[in-house]
Every structure is written in C-alpha cells, then in structure tokens.
Write a sequence for this structure.
C-alpha cells in the first residue's frame, strides 16, 4: 500500500503557535524555575523549539515510555524504557508531549511523576485529538486540536518514518 501525505499544518503555523505557547509559559511561571520533561521520541522537535522561546531558567530531562497493547490503541499501561536522570522533587515540572490521543500514556505518566513530589506538574501538548479521549486529564497548554486522523511530521512518526518533516501531514493509504 502506498502512503500518501497531505499537508495539514504548515511549518510556519507550527512555529507561530510554539512561540505563543512559550510566551504563555514564560508569563505563567514568572520568577520561578522550570523543568521540562520531553516524552521521547515524538516530542523532541517541539521541546527544542519551545524552550528556545521560554524566558526562564529551564532544565530539561527526557523520558521514553511505551504503552502496552496494540499499535493504534493505548491500553493505559506504560513501560518505562528510559527514566529521568535527575530528581524532580520540589520543582515546577512541565511534561512536553507531541500528541494526546486516548490520554492513557499521560494518565500513567502523571501518576508516576506525581509520586516524585514535584512542586507543580503540568502538561503541554502540541496536538490533541479530543474525540478519542478515554482518560480524563488536565491539559494546561495545547497547540492545535486535530480531528481523528493519523498525523505525521514534526517529530511524529508512522513506523518510525516521517519524523523529520518540518510540517504536519495527514497520512492516508492508497492501493
Ligand atoms: P495515548 O496514550 O492514546 O494518548 O497515545 C499517545 C501517543 O500515541 C502519542 O504520544 C504518540 O506517540 C502516539 N500517537 C497518537 N496519535 C498519533 C498520530 O496521529 N500520529 C502519530 N503518533 C500518534
Ligand atoms: Mg508520544
């Protein structure tokens, strides 16, 4: 089957929105320090672009988690492939995620990180598919709401491909 990609969100639109979110985050945490946690690998592009525009002392760390279950439905159980390197106790922690689908991954991650006693714990996601939500989670910053379509680019993959596209495309299959 042939993979067809149609541009949905341009690189310029992403850049503009990322700068807006960074400005909001700067304002919100004014006078404080921030630790951003990038959820690998999808959120890499977003996190590096975001932190460049956050005008606060920022530390970053990375986590890699995978959800059990099949490829398209998240079961809400996660396996930690790569854990934090530093303690987050007493810190303002911002989880930086690429996309929220069922919410299962973040639901588990919030429980896990919450148990490490951060001063605050919030979520910033670039994309959100609210129609697919199964877990009730509180999202403070959200870049774009998208319809129930499979998207790739700007860090997001299909079978590990297309992460390097500078824009967001919808993926369709053709025989
Ligand atoms: P959730 O646990 O169901 O919320 O799944 C979230 C994870 O599934 C994201 O962090 C992505 O890795 C992946 N995912 C969900 N939707 C898409 C998509 O449209 N394109 C690429 N990856 C996606
Ligand atoms: Mg992800």
């Amino acid at each position: 089957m042939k993979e067809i990609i149609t541009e949905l969100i341009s690189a310029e639109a992403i850049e503009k929105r990322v700068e807006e979110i960074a400005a909001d985050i700067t304002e919100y945490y004014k006078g404080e320090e921030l630790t951003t946690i990038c959820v690998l690998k999808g959120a890499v592009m977003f996190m590096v672009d975001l932190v460049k525009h956050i005008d606060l002392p920022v530390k970053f760390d990375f986590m890699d988690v995978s959800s059990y279950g099949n490829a398209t439905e998240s079961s809400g159980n996660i396996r930690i492939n790569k854990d934090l390197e530093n303690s987050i106790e007493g810190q303002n922690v911002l989880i930086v995620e690429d996309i929220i689908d069922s919410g299962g991954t973040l639901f588990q991650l919030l429980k896990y990180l919450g148990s490490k006693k951060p001063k605050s714990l919030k979520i910033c996601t670039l994309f959100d598919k609210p129609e697919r939500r199964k877990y009730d989670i509180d999202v403070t910053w959200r870049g774009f709401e998208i319809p129930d379509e499979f998207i790739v680019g700007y860090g997001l993959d299909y079978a590990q491909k297309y992460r390097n596209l500078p824009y967001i495309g919808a993926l369709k299959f053709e025989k």
